[in-house]
Design goal:
It is a single chain. The chain has a 7-stranded mixed sheet. The chain contains 6 helices and 7 strands. Helix 5 packs across helix 6. The protein has 200 residues and is an alpha/beta fold. The structure holds inosine 5'-triphosphate. The site of inosine 5'-triphosphate (ITT) has 23 residues, from strand 3.
């Protein structure tokens, strides 16, 4: 089985990606299991560039093919913020709880119909043996609630309502999140592209 390094330190992402790519025939290894401490700089303006940057750095550090995920939340009433800065939205110190508190403060007084948002994800594959990076994107539409609901998922999931389900991303099973999420769309498209490029 081909070993592929996952250029992420977010264990929730690594679990989601592992389930999404279960049939691809890769053995997925988190970066810190093969090259702990490898810098994964992500200072580009787009999710796609950052996903490619993370995968490129992981591939260079390990010599293995690498997958990168860059993702985040775009809130319409905030002009698309926090966007590529979603992980670090609250500044220093920063964690999911602080990010969610900051988001609720930024949206205080904004009515439900204007609290629309979407998660975005770019998924990249880089092969150190050669070839151009492959990158695919996905999005998932939602609404930001006024208070958290649910204990599953990570990040902004307790505030992110999926209107078609009437549930937040933190109130659904991983299998359901992996049916409809931004990450699912991006990695399924990447999966299809990689199968195509390896066919024949
Ligand atoms: P790596 O860079 O190591 O992969 P990270 O968490 O810093 O981990 P990003 O820079 O891509 O990853 O930031 C993504 C942030 O966007 C993440 O920390 C959450 O705050 C938010 N996010 C992305 N996908 C999410 C999801 O499925 N559910 C909840 N929040 C999500």
């Amino acid at each position: 089985m081909r070993r592929v390094v996952v250029a992420s330190r977010n264990r929730h992402k690594v679990v989601e990606i592992g389930a999404l790519l279960a049939d691809l025939g890769f053995e997925l290894v988190p970066i810190d299991d093969v090259a702990p401490g490898t810098a994964l700089v992500e200072d580009d303006p787009t999710f796609e560039e950052n996903a490619i940057a993370k995968a490129t750095q992981a591939a260079a550090a390990t010599g293995l093919p690498a997958l990168g995920d860059d993702s985040g939340l775009e809130v319409d009433a905030l002009g698309g913020a926090p966007g590529v800065r979603s992980a670090r939205y609250a500044g220093d110190p920063c964690d999911d709880g602080r990010n969610n508190t900051k988001l609720l403060g930024a949206l205080a007084g904004v009515p439900a119909e204007l609290r629309t948002a979407r998660y975005r994800c770019a998924a990249a594959f880089v092969d150190p043996a050669g070839g151009a990076p492959v990158v695919r994107s996905g999005a998932c539409e939602g609404v930001i609630l006024e208070a958290p609901r649910g204990a599953g998922g990570f990040g902004y999931d307790p505030l992110f309502l999926v209107p078609s389900l009437g549930k937040t991303m933190a109130e659904i099973e991983l299998s359901e999140k992996n049916r409809l999420s931004h990450r699912a769309a991006a990695f399924r498209a990447l999966d299809a592209a990689l199968r195509g490029s390896h066919a024949g």
